Amino acid sequence: MWGLLLALATFAPAVDLGLGTPGTSVPDLAPPATTKAPVSTLAPSSSPAQPPSGKDNGTSEQSARIRFIKKKVIIKKRRKLTRPRPLVTTRPPAITTPAGALDLPEEKEPGCPPLGLESLRVSDSQLEASSSQSFGLGPHRGRLNIQSGLEDGDLYDGAWCAEPQDAEPWLQVDAKHLTRFSGIITQGRNSVWRYDWVTSYKVQFSNDSRTWWGSKNRSSGMDAVFPANSDPETPVLNLLPEPQVARFVRLLPQTWLQGGDSCLRAEILACPVSDPNDLFPKAPALASSDPLDFRHHNYKAMRKLMKQVNEQCPNITRIYSIGKSYQGLKLYVMEMSDHPGQHELGEPEVRYVAGMHGNEALGRELVLFLMQYLCREFLRGDPRVTRLLTETRIHLLPSMNPDGYETAFHRGSELVGWAEGRWNQQGIDLNHNFADLNTPLWEAEDDGLVPDTVPNHHLPLPTYYTLPNATVAPETRAVIDWMQRIPFVLSANLHGGELVVSYPFDMTRTPWAARELTPTPDDSVFRWLSTVYAGTNRAMQDSDRRPCHSQDFSSHGNIINGADWHTVPGSMNDFSYLHTNCFEVTVELSCDKFPHESELAQEWENNKDSLLTYLEQVRMGIAGVVRDKDTELGIADAVISVDGINHDVTTAWGGDYWRLLTPGDYVVTASAEGYHSVTRSCRVTFEEGPVPCNFHLTKTPKQRLRELLASGAKVPPDLRRRLERLRGQKN
To answer: F5/8 type C domain spans which residues (predicted)?
Structure first.
C-alpha cells in the first residue's frame, strides 16, 4: 500500500494522514503515528549499489486518495487527474488573516514562477535547516538540479541532508518579502555513490519564523502530506491545495527511502505580492528595455519568429536549412549581412550554434533574441550593429538538436530535470559525436611527422567515420557539411548548466585521463576570446554570486581549458579547430539549463553585450588576400603559417584569409602548390583590426610550364632558358 502512495502522478493531490470517517480497512499497513518511518517497500531489492527501479506513471485514468485512520487505510477512487495549466504570474492577490488562514478566490487558478533556488536568485543566507550531516550537505545545497562533486563528503555534495538522528527534519526558505507560495518541486540527492530521497513531506508557512501554520487538505482540513520522489533525479511537482501568503516556507520530510537519509533538492513556486509595510528593499525586476519576444519557442514558434525577422529585415537576412534531425525537423539558420546569400571577398564568416543539448534551452532563446535585436537596431541605424552587419557575415543556428528540445519543452522548464532532452532522438550526445582528430594528430606529432608529412590543420575525416554504418547523427553530419561549405573564422557553442567559458582542447592528451591541461598552439588566442565573453557577461562578473554546482571558476576569470575541466572526446570545438579554420569556444550560460520564461529578459541583459563583443573579435589579428602575381587572381587553399605557432589556416576560394592573433609581431608565410612561398612581417596592435597582410605569389617554373602545355601555348624564351639552367644544375 505504501507503493501505491508513491505511484501517484507527478501532479498528484495532497494525501491526508489524519483521522477521518471509518471505511473499508487494510490493517497494519500504516506506520506508527509517532515515528517518521522510512518506506520499506521502496528499498532496492538487490545490492544497495543498484538504483531502485520505477516508472513515471504520469497522469492516469484513476488515482487514489489515501487517508490513514490510526492503522487503517481508506482508499477512495477519484476522477481523472488533469495536468495543471502553465505557470504564469497573473493571479489576484491573496490576503492572510492573523491566524494564518487565507481569503482566496474559490476558482482554480494557475500557479507562480520559481522563487529562484535553482537560478541562484535565492542566496545561501536565505536557506536554513533543522540539521545537516556536513557543510557539503547543508541547506545551501538543497537547490533543484544542483550537481555534486565526484567525491561524497566534500564541500559540494548533491542535496541538503538532515542528520540521521534528527527526528523532525526541515528545510526552510526565507523569501525576504511577503510572497504567495503556490507549489513545491522536489528531487532526491545527486550522487554517484548513494541513493537518498524523500518520499513524502509536509509544508508550513510563517511570517516571522516563529509562528507556523501548515498547508491544509481541502476536504479534511488536516495537514496535507505531499507525495515526493521515487528516484533521485526526476523532479516532482506538488501544487498546494490553497496558495499561502507568507514570508517563510518550510518543507518537513515525513518519510524517505529505507536505508537512506532525509535528503532533498527543491524549488519553490512563488509570486510576489505588494506589502506597504515591507522594510526590506526588493530586488530589481527582471526586465529589459529591448522589446523582444521573451518566451520559450518550440519548433513551430521558432520558425514563425525567424520568418517574422526575415520579413521585417529582408535586405539583411536569409533563412536556410543545413539538414534535418533524426525525426525530420529542419536545422534552420538565420544569415545576417548586408549582402545575405553570398561570401564577400575580405568579409569574415562567424557563427553561433545553440541547442546542441536539447534541454539547455537558454542558448536557443538568446540566439533568437539576438537576431531580433540585430534586425531592430539595424533599422534604427545603430552604428555598432550597422558596422557588424556590413563588415561581417553572421550565421545563427538556434537549435542543433530540435528533437531533444521538443522533449524538454514538453516537460516544462522546471520539470525537465538535468538530462531529459540532452541527447538526440537516437540517444547520441552530439558533443561527443564529431570525429576524433586529436588522436591521429598527437600520434603524428610524437612520431615527428608534423607538419612536414602530416599537416597541423584541416585534418581529414578518418575512414571509419565516413562508413555508411558509422554512428554519426544526422545533425552532426549536417553541421560538418555546413562547416566545409562556409569558411568560418570564429564561433561559439552555447550550452547551459554552468557559468564559465571553456576553450580547446576539450580532450585530454593523456589517454583515459579524466582531466588534464591540454592547450592548443593558439592558447593565447583562445584565452583572449574566452576572457572577452566572460569579462563582459553580467552574471559571470557578479562578485557576490555563489558557484553553480561543485566548482568555483571565478578565481580563474570564469574561463577554463576544456580538458582541464573534464575530457570530451569528439567535441565540436576540437573538430572545428583541427578540420577547419574556425576557432570555437563553449559558453556555459547559466546555472539553470532551462530558465523559467520570467527570467529570460534578465538573461538577455546578462549576455547581450557579450554576444556582440565576441562577434567583434573576428577583427582581431591579420587578414588579407593571397594573389597570383601575374594574374592578380586570388589563390584558393593557400596555407598561412605563423612562425612559432604550430597551426596553420588556409585561404577561401577567393584567396582571402583571416588569422586570429593576439597583439604582437609575427613572421607570416604564405605558400601554395605551384608557387614560391613568400614571407613577411606583420604587426598586430591593440587597435581594432584586422591588420592587412596581403601576399603576391609567383608561380614556379614547373607550374608555369604545366599551365602553358595544358593550354597548347608556346613556351616563352625566358622560361625555356630557366628550365635549361635547372636541368643543368640537376645534372
So the answer is: 110-271
Is the same domain home to 594 and 642?
no
604 half-sphere exposure, CB direction, 13 A CA radius: 27
Res. 280 pLDDT band, cuts 50 70 90: low
DSSP 597: G
Active-site residue among 588, 599, 605, 688?
588
**End-of-domain residue from the set 558, 593, 619:** 619
Question: Do 183 and 263 belong to one domain?
Answer: yes
Annotation marks residue 588 as catalytic? yes
Please give the single-letter amino acid code of residue 627.
Answer: R
Residue type at position 497: G
Q: What is the mean pLDDT of the chain?
A: 85
Give the CATH number, domain containing residue 434: 3.40.630.10
Looking at residue 284, its pLDDT comes to 63
Percent of all residues in the chain with a pLDDT value above 90, rounded to a whole number: 74
Looking at the fold, whether 220 and 310 belong to one and the same domain comes out as no
The secondary structure element, H or E, covering residue 479 is helix 474-485
- Long-range contacts formed by 271-275: CB under 8 A, 24+ apart: 271/89, 271/91, 271/112, 271/113, 271/179, 271/180, 271/182, 272/177, 272/178, 272/179, 272/180, 273/93, 273/94, 273/178, 273/179, 273/180, 273/245, 274/93, 274/178, 275/177, 275/178
Contact between 416 and 359 (Cβ < 8 Å): yes
Q: Domain total for the chain?
A: 3
Q: What is the average pLDDT across 55-70?
A: 36
SS3 string of 700-714?
CHHHHHHHHHHHCCC
- DSSP structural state of residue 284: P
By residue range, what is the domain housing residue 427? 299-339+346-495+577-619
Residue with cell 576570446: 529
Closest CA to 193 of 117, 120, 266, 263: 263
Collapse the DSSP code of 184 into the 3-class scheme (helix H, G, I; strand E, B; otherwise coil) and give the result. Answer: strand
SS3 state at 143: strand
CA distance 550 to 155: 8
Decide if 534 contacts 540 (C-beta within 8 A): yes
Q: Identify the pLDDT of residue 97.
A: 32
Q: What is the pLDDT of residues 683-727, one digit of tens each?
A: 999 988 899 999 999 999 888 777 777 877 777 777 677 767 777
CA 95 to chain centre: 39
Verify that 425 and 376 share a domain, yes or no. yes
Distance CA 416, CA 421 (A): 8
113 φ, ψ (degrees, to nearest 5): -75, 170
Kind of pairing between the strands at 695-697 and 622-628: parallel
Could you report the per-residue pLDDT of 463-478, keeping only the tens digit for each? 999 999 999 999 999 9
Question: Quick one: average pLDDT of 265-276?
Answer: 91
Shared-domain flag, residues 258 and 227: yes
Q: Residue 601 and residue 607: Cα distance in Å, rounded?
A: 10
> What pairing do the DSSP bridges indicate for beta strands 500-503 and 393-397?
unpaired
Average pLDDT over residues 631-660: 97
The kind and range of the H/E element at 264 are strand 263-272
Domain match, 267 and 391 both = no
pLDDT value of residue 279: 63
